[in-house]
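Appendix B, Record 12. Input sequence as logged:
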Amino acid sequence: MSRVAFVAAVVALGSRVVAAEPLATVVEPPPTDVPPPPPPPPPDREPCAADVAGAPVPGEESGRTDPLDDGDTTGRAIGRRALFVPKLAVDVAFAPIRSSIWLYDRYRLDDLYYRIFFNDARTIGLYPTVAFESGFGITGLTGGARFVARDMFGEREHLALQAAAATSYYFRQLYSASFRTGNRLGKRFSLEADVGYEIRPRDAFYGIGNGDASPAPAMPVDPRVSDVAVETRFSQHRARGVITGDVRLWSDLHLRPAAAVSDRTFGTPSEGIASDQVYSMGLVGWGGVQGAYGELELRWDNRRAVSTWDPHGTLTGGTLASAFAAQFHRLDAGADFARYGFELQQFVRLGIGPRVIAARVHGEAVTGSRADVPFTELPSLGGPLYLRGYALDRFRDRVAAFGTLEYQWDLAGWIMANAFVDAGRVYSAVNDVSLDHLRVGYGLGLQLTYGGGFVSEVSVASSVDGGLFFNLAFNPVYDIEQRVRRR
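Logged structural output:
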């Protein structure tokens, strides 16, 4: 027999043996303490709870390689019990918010809102506005509406018309119109025009300086030389016209020229102690202030949402650095003066959620003396933008310095919560700036965003001097665009 025939015979014989006597397969029986996996649901229906009734609970799955949790340690158990009361308080405080989020998602209130108030493209619509103010001895609501057209002529031109009136005669009325050119003049240059008229029947004036609140004195006070702080009221009617330009020089560096004209008249308040009764001497500008304001600002601004998963319209990273110089020219018989200042902001994203630390430093000063600058044109602190925890414009003087540190975290896709501490004070001169006798405010806030933009912000704040202030605002706390409009 040849060698080839011998090999073929061996292969054939082996095949018959394998076919006749296959190797036995050892199958291990399933563990008796683990229930068999549930059968898959029929393809014609969705899975339900009954389909996974026999599945192992979390932590008891087979094949786990991570260490199992043996339960709470003694320290963790003590910590849980110690934090029960604060946790319960937080849960109760946020219960209305969580309920609102559930209703919002369950019934798609955003779609209902846009169907009622906006066109299909969501470029033209109406925003109902409601503002709540407190800390003035009384509280009240201001309601109105804001009409917007976001793309009027195809280059993102923006028109906004707003009207608001108070439910109580103690609070102000506001009427304004603004127009932005968008990309009509190119992507490096834009203009915005704004006109407005305000009726404010009960604004507060506490004198000039960093003095503590005092009862009404027996004698009139001269705020030019005295720091006595008495809560008084005055009314004012104010008309303004503003034009602001924005030139992008390079990357995130912008040059922003601005000009404004304004006319203020003052009078007796609707309620409260009149300012001209207590401060009858030296209340500069009480007869009315008419002026023209010119400003030049250099701004670096790369604030943004760091991750595409961060809530739309929020700032989670980046820096803002701004410096400005301006001249206020009196159109009446008053003296001219200059204004200058700076703003620094830094946002640091700590982690997903997102979790953000925001820091801010603001400084502002005027060159005129207390005898030259109208009392409403002095740099001021207090209110929802600068030094929360104090009444609006609680402190006024020739120099104002302010800083804030804030921690922000995400509650939902359109709600960010924050806890903040503010500190600052006013000074009579730049040489007097120090960290002595700082005013400190603190509190909690919520910021609502939608569609890539800011909607509103609500905060509850107090201070080392006491008091509780609730504010609902429609301008972001970190927005510095309102500075020129206030002139």
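The two ends are 115 Å apart (CA to CA).
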